[in-house]
Specification:
3 helices; mainly alpha; single chain; rod-shaped
Length: 115
């Protein structure tokens, strides 16, 4: 594989992490807003969509790590670091969103909150 092709692949993978991570984070945030309004079922659907975006990003990251393990070392660029940071932030945000949806569900079930 040529150096230009490796750089292009890394660029595309980095952009995929950023796009899928951003999408996952946005969907998780939407889930929180829906749960806050009492629409728990739709909130859970948004969390499931978020998980699908995270899976796409994770698969891309795994492919990058596999290439690295096979000796195809990537040049560490600011974009690559940013893409990894974006993904990890999205994963943390998704985890927190799941907890908040669970909490809102309990509050609505106990009649502590009303839609």
């Amino acid at each position: 594989m040529t150096e230009d092709k490796q750089e292009q692949d890394l660029l595309m993978a980095s952009m995929g992490l950023i796009a899928n991570g951003g999408n996952a984070k946005s969907l998780a945030f939407e889930a929180i807003r829906l749960a806050k309004k009492g629409d728990i079922a739709t909130a859970r659907e948004k969390l499931a969509e978020s998980d699908k975006s995270l899976l796409k990003a994770h698969n891309s990251q795994t492919e990058m790590l596999t290439k690295e393990a096979q000796g195809q070392h990537a040049q560490v660029t600011l974009l690559l670091v940013h893409s990894q940071d974006h993904l990890m932030t999205a994963i943390c945000f998704r985890d927190l969103a799941g907890e908040l949806v669970d909490l809102y569900e309990k509050l609505y079930d106990s009649k502590t909150l009303q839609a």
